[in-house]
Amino acid sequence: QVQLVESGGGLVQAGGSLRLSCAASGRTFSSYAMGWFRQAPGEEREFVAGISGSDGSTRYADSVKGRFTISRPNTKNTAYLQMNSLKPEDTAVYYCAARIGSTVYITKSLYIYWGQGTQVTVSS
Fold it and tell me: In angstroms, rounded to a whole number, what is the distance separating the alpha carbons of residues 67 and 110?
């Protein structure tokens, strides 16, 4: 019912910016909570940012607060992750995810729809 495709990853120098896109399809997509997760080599996949499907409230990992912004315009079936002031430790594969409920959670097992991931590499 829901398909997700990420894009926008790439190589950027420290201090630079990238905007990731998550193109979504599905008749009830607008009511689903959306999340961004990332996984660096040798590390667990971790929550980065999420946006509610009901009131649009957002939640961020402490490590990205003030630097990353998640958004989901009303008209387009696309979610975004604007990443500013990037650091080398932000290097990871970034995944877009969705859950049927509207509430954002940081637990990855609660998200049942996943994109294929997009690589973000931040050089020093």
Answer: 25
Q: Minimal CA–CA distance to 83: which of 8, 32, 30, 4?
A: 8
Q: Which amino acid is at 36?
A: W
Handedness of CA 75, 76, 79, 85 (dihedral sign): negative
Least confident of 9-13, 28-32, 99-103: 28-32
How far apart are alpha carbons 72 and 74 in whole angstroms? Answer: 6
State the DSSP code for 27.
T
**Element containing residue 92 per DSSP (H, E):** strand 92-99
Q: Other C-beta atoms within 10 Å of 51: how many?
A: 23
> What CA–CA distance (Å, rounded) separates 53 from 34?
7
Residue 107, classified by CB atoms within 10 Å of its CB into exposed (0-12), middle (13-18) or buried (19+), is exposed
DSSP H or E stretch at residue 74: none
